[in-house]
Each structure stands twice: as C-alpha cells, then as structure tokens.
## 1
Amino acid sequence: MSIQRPLSDSWLDSPVDYPHDGGCQAAIDPDFKAFLAPMEARRMGRLLKRAVAVSDTVLAEASVSDPDAILTATGLGCVENTEAFLNALCEEGEDVMMPTAFMQSTHNTIGSLLAIRRKCHGYNSTYAHKGVSFESAVLDAVVQLRLGAVSNALVGAFDEMTPTYFGFLAKTGFVGQPGMVRASDSAVAMVLSAVPAEKALCELMDVRLMYRPAAGKVASYIMGQEGVDAIVAGINGSEKNDKIYEEIASATCLPVMGYKHLFGENYGASAAGVYAAVRCLHSGRFASLHAGEMALPEIRSVAVVNHDGRSVSVVKLGSLC
Amino acid sequence: MVRHKPIVVTGAGVVCAIGNCKGQVAEALRSCRSGISTVEYLDTSHKEFPVGEVRMTNTEMRAAAGIAPGEVANRSSLMAVIAAGEALAQAGLACIPEGVRVGLVTGTTVGGMDMSERHYRSFKDSDEHAAYIATHDCGSTNELIADRFPGLEMVTTVSTACSSAANAVMLGANLIDAGMADVMVVGGTECLTRFHLNGFKSLMILDREPCRPFDISRAGLNLGEGAAYLVIETEESARRRGVPVVCRLSGWGNACDAFHQTATSADGEGAYLSMKAALESAGLQPSDIDYINAHGTSTPNNDESEAVAVERLFAGCMPAISSTKSYTGHTTSASGAIESVICLLALEGGFMPANLNLTQPLDRGIRPVMPDAAGNAPSANLKNILCNSFGFGGNDSSLIFSRFDD
C-alpha cells in the first residue's frame, strides 16, 4: 500500500507518476471494508488498518493462516497517535488521559495487533531503525529460517508520514528538498518460507546490514559469493542521499535502477523496493524501475541496496522462473 | 526445538536506580536497598508516583560517558554509552579490532522522546532544535550510542516495549549461532519521560506507593529508567580472544500472548510458551531452574498471569522467584537487560535478590525469595536462572543464564 494503486501490480505497466518536487503525498487506501468490520475499523488508526489489509492479503496469497513468526518494521511507529498524545501534553499539560492513543503509539502495537487478530502465539518482534527497519526484520526472519527455528515468517514494514512530521523531517533534509521524490506513507508485507515452497515468487538469497561501510566494501559483498545482474537502489533525487549509490554502481559496474520514483520516500520505503524487485523478477519486466537510458541485460538476480545515512542494507533476490 | 552452539557472556554493564555500575548494583541487591523514591530528575508535576531514577543529571552522565556539552545526546543514549562502555571494557573490546564482526542491538521505545517533549513546540516554529528532530526516533538514538564505539559491523534497534532488551539479546544470540556475527553487544535503554509517565497514568497502572510485586495488596507499578548491555559470543570465540567467561547464555524463547494490547491473558499463555521455549532451547528441564527473576511489574494483572504461567510450567518443582522491580522500578525497554545483569550478579555473587515489600504473597504456590535474618539477600549456589520480560502487546520473552563450569 503506497502512493501507487493499493494491493495491485498495475505500477509494473502503468505507474502513477509524481513530480520530483520534494512534496508530501498520502498513500492511496483500498476499501478497508473488505478486511475490517466497521466497529473494528473505528478503533484503529490508519496505519493499523493498512497493516491488517496487506498482511491478510499476503497470508492468503501464500496460503498461510498462522505464521511461525511475525516480524514488523516501523521507523516511527504510529505517528498519528504519538502526535495526538504529544499535542495533548503540550495543550493540556499533565492532566492528559488518552490511554488508547498512548497504547497505539508504541512501535510494537502493529505486530501485536496482527498476532491478536489471528491468535498467533509464534515469535513476534518489532524493529525500529529508520530506513533499515525492514531489512532488520528480514535479517531476523532469515536467521531463524536458516537455524530451522521457524518454517515461515510474515515480515512487514509500516510507516506513515503526517503533514506535521513531514515538516519536521524536511528540516533534517531527509525529505522535502527540491528535486527529490515525494515523501509518502507505505505498508508492505511479504511471507518468507523455508525452501522448498510451492508458491514462491523468487528466492531470497541473502540479507546483510553494514554500519558505515565504505562503498568498496558494499560493492565487494554485492559481487562476491552470489553475484547479481543488477542493483535496485534507494535513489531519491537528493545528491547527498544518492552519492553512495553512484559509488557502488561505479565499483560494481552493474546497472542501477530505482524504485522511490514510484513509491516515494519514508522509513519503510525500502520494503517497497524489495517488493518491487520481487514482482519484477517474477514477471521478468523491469521497465518501470528503469529510470535511465542504458539497455538492460537479462536480469535473473538483483541486489536491493538502501541506506539510512549510516547503515547500508543489501537484500539479494534471485529469479525462480 | 533447535539446539544451538554454546554461547557465553564475556562482558556486562549497567546503569539504573540502584547503581551506576555492576559493583554498586550488586551491593544494593545484597543489602536489599531499593532505589525507588520521589521523582527528582524528571521535570514532571506528578510527584505522587514513586520512580526509580538513575542518580545522575544529564550533565553528570555526559561527564561519565566522555561526551562534550555541545554534542547531540539524549538521556537514553547517555546511559547506554556508560553501560555499553562497561560491558565492552570487561570483554576486552574497548577498542574493537579489525577482523572481529561485532554488532550492536539496542532495545528502546522512547528513543529521544525526552528531548522531543521538551522542544516539541520549537520543532514546529523554528530550526533551533532540528538536531533533536533527527535523533527523536529509536534508531537514531541507537546510532548516538553506536558512534561512540568505532568498528561496529552492524547496528539495529528492537522496539517491543518491555521485552525490547530481551529480544535484542535473542537476535544477537541467533546471529552468532548462525555464524552471521562473531560478537554481539546486546541490551537496552530507556529514560523517564513525561510522555510515558502520563501514558502509564492514563492506563491507570501506576502505584502511588512503592510497588509490592506478588503481594495480594499490590496496586500497580513504579516506573524506572536505566540501561544495560551484555557482550555475547561463542565459547570458542571467547577462548580464542583469551577473555574470561562470566556465565553461559544457555537458552532463549519468544512467544506472543496474542490476547490484548496491554492486558495479559488469565492463563498466562504467552508467558508459559516463552519460558517453555527457553527451557527447550537450553536443553533443560523445569526442575533444573534454581531461581526465576520475574517480570513482576506489581500490577494486579501481570503478577497473577505470570504466577499462573509459572505454576503451569513448574508444578511440583517451583523454583525460588523474585521481582527486582521494587529495587529499580519498571525500566520498560531496558528491563530485559538490566535484569539479565542482575541475574549475572546473582550467579557470580552466590545470592538471590529478595522480593521486597512482600507481606502476603498471592496464592499460586510461588516461593518468593525473602531477605535473610540479617535483612540481606540470602546466599544461594545457583546453577540456572530464568529471566522473564513481558511487554505490552503480549510480546513475551525469556532468557536462561547458567553458571559456566570450565
């Protein structure tokens, strides 16, 4: 769920275009009635509703009703609720009594809601580390899959961008600069399973987090052991942000595509990058990610590369087709 | 269940209401001295709720952590730097060498909220405190910590409320077991804020008296603050690096209660499952556990559910049990790590922390640890300790620490 049509792969062939003006663009919501009864929906903030909708969708697609693990990623948590509580503290002082807003402001409220709805007692954890929150959740899922501790995992990234928070983050340069893609919200989910899996869309070969690495180190990892055919990177139009991707591109000599021109920028955006790469590998069609003029080779594997200013994350995906 | 490589603790550090290092914390535990008192450091109008504050101003913390007055920091990051520094020094990693893959995982939920709530109005109106916008979130606060320890291979942040630090330990252990890291520095930090003090007040689970875990008259929790970290690695790695082993991290488990966002189920299902998973992970039987450091927040709900879960799992071989939250307060995201360090100190020091303020225990067959005749923590030769951390949202985590016999 993003600024492209929700729960749809229509962006592969006919994406919604947005100008690179550093503005703020709200995600497009589906009709939540398909997922939630009115009473339930009334008690949930927007981000929680989106989380339920994408999670239910992917679990149905993967034919999994009770995942062994639920891993959630969110850079800021439910900002709407945090703001409501903070504003009330500022306006009313310490007489404030807003139990629901407080309860729904903690970062793990999303992951626990997903478990409560499905009575899922399995492993449950939440990662909140800016633009690599999603890859942290993937890392946890992958390590447990490799150890045989779980045989499948629901992994999702959920972030919202309120107008107030957009204003704050524009002051830090993370969003809102001229020439940048728009800031957005997103809710992305996927099911990871131990091999072999019947309905697999592609293979998740490896995931790596690196803290303050030199571009050369990232390039070596991308090209090493299991090399890839192309890079999908978190390019967003900001010179400062895009610099490391250019360095990695030079060092690897691999074609580089972007995804934020489609899905926008927020702390959960990298999950949209992985989602997009999965769908492209499965369909064999990369045209919507390919922003440049260079002809693409045949792409059977990609490295999805993102950074959050200090950490660099790489998710290596391979085609099963 | 999965059996894992032998994983050991080679360093530990802690800052909390009963001490600014392990030695001070051990001393307070041995003499049954609580750190709960009237609020002094947090700027709040709610003086009626006792809290467990770290006895340092931010200025004093900066001095202790070696962080200059002008550098961006928040109270959570300051405490964490002190605690992580103590742990890394003990593990011989004050300077992280090349070729050793050391990762940092921190559990936190408030992050830089102490600064954000102070400067919120100015965030909107000016650029004066923009640096604190950038360090508001959990991950950015963790990076303030990480940047004090050059050479880290990877850094990430867990946020599962009161089980955050325990889950950080678990991720670290799994990464080491899978060969994806050599050494992990794992723990948590949380400072007091008006935000969550008033949040817990809204939920009506704060006590106006010092808390009484497992007592039938218990009426709620006292909030606390602090930070703690463990350094963990394989036994083989510790031998290779030539560092002494503190104890084993022999097992870990995580399960979800899947019942309610803030209340726990009557049969303590999540707690039961996480303790059971930890035992299986350690290859131990319930009868092997000598002492349980309970989550024991002192709310009517938690202590009852936890006692029910303990009774279900340990029927016929109930270990001694105590909650140390009557010493430190409920340190929320940091509690899993602070209480892990307390378990280490108990193992090393041959004592069990007493359950304070207990006059009449709830009726679930539990065996609370009481002070000895001299009013001190009773001596005990402990082999295996179970440490529980149960978070809002039903995020239940349990760790098992064991004596290291060479």
Note: Chain A has a mean pLDDT of 94.
## 2
Amino acid sequence: MTRYIVKRILYAFVVIWAVATLVFFMLRIVPGDPIGAMLAEVDPTVAEAVRAKLGLDRPMYIQYLFWMRNILQGDFGNSIYGSRVPVSQIILEAIPRTLSLATLAFVISFSLALVAGVISAVKKYSALDHSLTFAAFLGISMPDFWLGILLIIIFSVNLQWLPAIGYEPLSKGFWPWFSHLILPALAAGLPFSAVITRITRSAMLEVLQADYIKVARAKGLRERGVIARHAIQNALIPIVTVMGIALALLISGAVVVENVFAIKGLGRVLIQGILNRDFPVVQGAILIVSVIFVFTNLAVDILYTVIDPRIRYEE
Amino acid sequence: MASHPNTAAGIEQIPIFEAEVGVPKRQRRWLRALWRDKKAVTGLIILLLMIMAAIFAPLITPHDPSDMAYGFLEAPSLSHPFGTDDLGRDLFARIIYGARISLMVGLTTVSIALIAGVLMGLVAGYYGGWVDNLIMRYIDLQWAFPNFIIAVYLVAVFGAGLSNVIVAVTLAFLDDFARITRGMVLSIREQEFIVAARSIGVKDQRLLLRHILPNAMAPVIVLATVTVSYAILAEAGLSFLGLGVKPTTPTWGLILSDARTFFSRAWWLALFPGLAIMLTVLSLNFFGDALRDILDVKEYK
C-alpha cells in the first residue's frame, strides 16, 4: 500500500508539472501577447524595452525554462496593473480566504448531507425521504451563484442578520469570520451536499441489506447502535469514492460564489485577472486552483485505501 | 402491437430477424418503462415546454427582448408578468429568448463532446497501445481541474463570445465521455460475442460500430443527459461572471449578473432567471435519473 501511495504522490507532481507547462504554452499560442495589449498606445521602442526586460524576446524554450525555475521558487511574476504587485503576494493573501470558505462549506454541507442521507435511507419511502430526495434534486439543479443572491436578499437585505459582502480573517474573532462566510459557504456547498446526500442514501440502503446488519439486529443490538456502529461506517466507502467528483463541484462553487460575495479569494482573483487581461495573475491563480484540486483528490484516494483495508492496489 | 398483415406497414413489421426489423424488443421495453416513470415524464414535459418556448418565442410574447420601451424596474404586472429591468426591457421576453441561448449551448456542446469523446474512448479502449496512452494522459490532465474551471480558463485564453463559450464548454466536458466509453469498451472487448465475431472475420470498423458501440451506449446516454444540465449551468455561470456572451444578449446568467445591482429594489430580476435555470436543469436531472434506473447504470461511476 505504501508503494501505491508513493506512486500516487509522484504522479500528482507529474500532473501538476504538465498543468504548469500547458498553462505556459496555452497563453502563448494565441495571437497577441500581453505586452502588446498592455502597451498598445505607447511607442514601439518602449514596448520592445519592456519585452526585453521581461525576457519575452528570447526563444520560447528559454522562456519556458525561466518560467519553470521561477514558479518553483514561488515567483509568478508581477501583476501588469497598477503598482505591479507580485502575483505570489496576491495569491498568498487569497489562499486563506478560499480555504476558509471551502473548509466551512465542506464541514457544513458534508454533515448536513450525511444526516439527510442516513435519515432518508432509514425512513425509506416515507414523506421525509421523498422531501429530502426532492431537496437534493433542487440542490443539484440550483445555480450556486443564484442561491448566493437569494441568501443575500433574504438574510442581508430583508432580515439584516448577516453582512452581504466581504471577509474578516479568523484572527479578528470567530463571529466576524463566521458571519461573513456562512452565506457563501451555504451557496458553494449546496451541490456538493446534494450529491453526497444521494450517494449516502443509496450506500446506506445497500449496507442495510447486508448479513452482518441482520446479525447485529439478531443479537439484540438496538437499532440506533446498528445504524451508528455498523451501517454508517461501511457506507462511508462508496461516499469517499464520489468525493472527488463532489469536491470538483465544491471548488468551482467557491470560485463562483466568491464573486457574488466580493470575497477576494482565488476565484475572485482569477476572474478579475481574466476581465483585466492580467495574464500573470490568471496563470498563477489557475495553477494554484489546480494544485489544490489535485492534492485534495490525492488525499481522497489515500483516505480510500486507509478506510477500506480490503482494497489492494497491485498495479 | 397488433399486426395487420394486409397493409404495407404490417408487412414491414413481420419479424425476420428480431434485431434488424423495427424497434428492437429491448429498446421498446425501456421506452415503455420511461413512459411509466413519473420523474421521467415530468422532466420531459418541462423540457419540451422550454424547447417550444425557445422556438416559438415571438409567438409567446408580444414584446421584443431588447426593446427599451417601458418603465424602469417595474414590478410584475399583467402587461409585464415578470416586470421590467433597469433599462425598461420586458423581463418575460428576455427570459423566453434567453432559453434559446441556454438550450442551444447545452445541446450543441454536449452533442459535439459526445461524438468526439465517444470516438476517442472507442479508439483508446479498442486499439490500446500508444493511442490509448496519449488519450489517457489527456484525460488525466483534464482531471487536474474541475470541469467549470476548465471552461473558465479556456474562455480566458480564447476570449469571451458565444462561439468561444461553446468551444470552451465542449472541451470542458469532452474527457468525461472519452473516459466512460473507454471503460465500457475495455470490459466489452473481452466478451465472448466479440471474440466470436472477430473469429468469423468481422472487420475492426464494423466490430466497433455495430457490436461494441451499441453495448457501450447506456452509461453514455445517462452521462449526456446530466452533462446537458451541467453545460447549461456552466454557460449561465460564465455569463454571470462576465466571461460569456455579449452583454446585450438576453441570457439567464447575464440577467442575474445585472440583478446584483438592484438587490433591494427589484427582487423579480433576481428570482425569475434563476427559476428558469433551475427548472431546466431540474427537468434534465429528473429525466437523467430515471434513465439511470431504467438502463441500470451505476450511480456516479
């Protein structure tokens, strides 16, 4: 198993290297370079000088090697706008915001989904089960940014319970942090929650048919003990297998929802970068989003081998 | 089905070889099952209504979606059932016309992604070797991003606009079709009827298209249904973020993007376009879920 895990980790790095390479070349195969866009009105000699300074006049492979060396040192270049802030600084400020949002969204939606899924399975075909199933369908079908807008209209504009936009770091206290993040977390976590609810329900239904559940009941365990001790633990395995797909929804959700709630996390940095055609920022942000995604998926894979010792990876 | 041996139609339906005449039995059975499924029928009805509304938009609403002829931000009324927007345009008309963009993007992107992805999966799974390796590495690379983020990135590279959105969304979902088809081909390839067909000298192309492909289709059909809903959500999301179609085009995502400025004054701007997206996506999910049960496809795999 250790060999499998080491292999997976190495492979994750190869994928990230490939992503970095792709990101580098994608922006260079399209016509028009960023400096041209930036200095369109300035006289051409200045543009040449800037190109030379940034190394854009050198052959492509030299540029590529420089780009690789730089990103390995954590240098993503500078924003081409305003005071030309280093991209790494922008990203370092954004990461805690996105991680806060994603973590809170994960905790809330995962716990809600587990409870809803288990109840649905235990009370199979009851009115409660039907309403939870319907709610899960709504959850997959509702655009996250729309839910964000509705939550703002209800809780910020009308009830005035929670702030509509912005972010406060956890260091300023739990409540300021939590009150700014709870609405975006609900919006970003919704589709994730819906997927996990559905899979929990079907996994629990399957587990509850198993012989060891009958045995547990036959030996006189209380129903609550059977569900909590025997059923849920075994249902977790299929839940973890869909986690990768569900996490993709959660991370895209965070990227979009940050733009609704004006939280300057990675998603907002990415979208603002695209709208400003600020290429160094776009490259840096997309690369970090991918790194986060690849490593959460890796963690899911490893978790999978840990919770299910029956799984052996031979290849 | 009653047969009428004297009519031409009846003669055509006399089975010579079950599988080659009329609708095969198996197919008829799942069509009937689909018709009995409440979720499938509900989804199909909503979807058909949406498609009809999109096609016959000018007959449904007398208003032009870009006509700035009415009061600004008027609340819903009899003459403007969904109210008007900040430029005095009829919101109902904008949403009906918006269905055209949404459905067009959803159906076009998934059709192209399906054809290209299935072909890639067939070739990769059947021939193996370096082709398979190449296609698998491509799939792995896409696996490094959530689908929506791929679409966002491609729009960043190609620029905004309707055709670029279609290209970006198509590419974002292409790998899913390739992966699922490849997996099916790998499991079908070794089965006896394929070995038998090959042993009597059936050629590769015929083997792939007539024997392997039909047996690999069930999960692809389910995936396609669900992907149309994801593609519609992706287009709405891109438009909402300002990365989609031209700002003057009526699309659901753009209307929602505008609605943000008028939170406290015009709830209808935020409510109706979102409802339109949700209903469309919900109907696709209902239909897809029913298909998944009937075709007996494993969930999320």
Note: The radius of gyration of chain A is 24 Å.
